[in-house]
């Protein structure tokens, strides 16, 4: 897109400012993202090898990219989007904790009740800790 032609060649400085603002606000992707990290525990103990999946609610009108993070031995994760891009789409999001292969988290054959939730992802970086419980 030729921003100078769009705004008129007599205002190249204004065209440059609009171009930089467009690039930095993510106009091309149509959504904002924020870095999300956290820790998953089960009854207070870190849980390794779990997948935290973030599915943005979009009202069924667009397809916003999901994000996910894998827990390490300390239960910590960092959410990424497809293409290994960091961040989660800002706004109302459904969060599910699943096993590495996408199954339900279970303890002694029973699903963990609080492995799903809904949160508002703020525009700034955030920490979302999840404490799963067996009760």
For this entry, give a set of tags.
135 residues, mainly beta, Immunoglobulin-like, 2 domains, five-stranded mixed β-sheet, four-stranded antiparallel β-sheet, 2 helices, 41% strand, disordered N terminus
Mind telling me the CATH class of the largest domain? Mainly Beta
Distance between the termini: 57 Å
Question: Quaternary arrangement of the chains shown?
Answer: single chain
Shape: globular
Rounded mean pLDDT score: 80
Gyration radius (Cα, Å) is 20 Å
Beta-strand percentage range: 35-45%
**How many structural domains can be distinguished in the coordinates?**
2
Helix content: 10-25%
CATH architecture call of the largest domain:
Sandwich
Total number of helices? 2
H/E element sequence: HHEEEEEEEEEEEEEEE
Q: CATH topology of the largest domain, which one?
A: Immunoglobulin-like
Largest sheet: 5 strands, mixed
Structural class: mainly beta
Let me know the number of strands: 15
Q: What is the CATH homology-level superfamily of the largest domain?
A: Carboxypeptidase-like, regulatory domain
Enumerate the spans where pLDDT stays under 50 for 5 or more consecutive residues: 1-28
């Amino acid at each position: 897109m030729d921003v100078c032609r769009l705004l008129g060649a007599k205002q190249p400085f204004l065209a440059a400012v609009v171009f930089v603002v467009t690039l930095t606000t993510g106009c091309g992707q149509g959504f904002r993202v924020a870095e999300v990290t956290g820790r998953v525990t089960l009854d207070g103990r870190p849980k390794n090898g779990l997948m935290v999946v973030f599915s943005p609610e979009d009202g069924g009108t667009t397809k916003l990219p999901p994000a996910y993070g894998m827990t390490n031995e300390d239960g910590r994760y960092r959410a990424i989007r497809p293409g290994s891009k960091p961040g989660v789409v800002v706004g109302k999001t459904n969060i599910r904790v699943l096993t590495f292969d996408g199954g339900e988290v279970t303890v002694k054959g029973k699903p963990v009740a609080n492995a799903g939730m809904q949160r508002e992802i703020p525009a700034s970086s955030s920490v979302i800790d999840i404490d799963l419980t067996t009760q």
